Amino acid sequence: MAWHTITEAQKLTGKSRRTLYRDMATGRLSWEPEGDSARRLETSELIRVYGELKPLAQPEEKKQAHADTVNGTPDTALILAELKALREEMAELRQAMRLLEYKPDLPPPDTPGTAEIVPNEKPIPWWRRSLFRQ
Question: How far apart are CA 96 and CA 90, in angstroms?
Fold first, then answer.
């Protein structure tokens, strides 16, 4: 017969992990080591101790996207039109942001009426400052 892991045995018997390990420790349920720390149980042993097993394999349902947004539905055209309008609006907003952020360049220093810009001197670090200010 087939061999099962503890997790599979839990699903087949409906018993808890603790119950399975307790029955293995008392000798009620026989098992074989699998690798260094795993155990495996035979199907016939599970049937002998716990009776009829639950069906393990259940049919998997076909996974499908939301039924309302499948390609070809009438709402698809509406969604695509709204998406296009939103993209156009975003482009307009980006253009408006660029205009708002526009800063004209400073006039060249040789033009009359403009003051010469002097870079600020770096402040003196606290450890170089005089203790007694004058």
Answer: 10
**Taking the model in full, what pTM does it have?**
0.42
What pLDDT was estimated at residue 36? 84
Q: Where are the alpha helices (DSSP H) in 1-134?
A: 6-13, 17-26, 43-50, 74-101
What was the pLDDT predicted at 113?
A: 57
- pLDDT given for residue 45 in this prediction: 92
> Quick count: other Cβ atoms within 10 Å of Cβ 43?
15
Calculate mean pLDDT across residues 16-31: 93
Long-range Cβ contacts of 57-61 (<8 Å, 24+ apart): none
Residue 50: other Cβ atoms inside 10 A: 19
Among residues 14, 68, 76, 2, which one has the least CA distance to residue 40?
Answer: 2
CB 3 within 8 A of CB 42: yes
40, 52, 34: which is closest to 4 by C-alpha? 40
First to last CA, the chain: 99
- CB contact at 8 A, 21 and 28: no
Task: For residue 11, give the nearest of 36, 37, 46 by alpha carbon.
Answer: 46
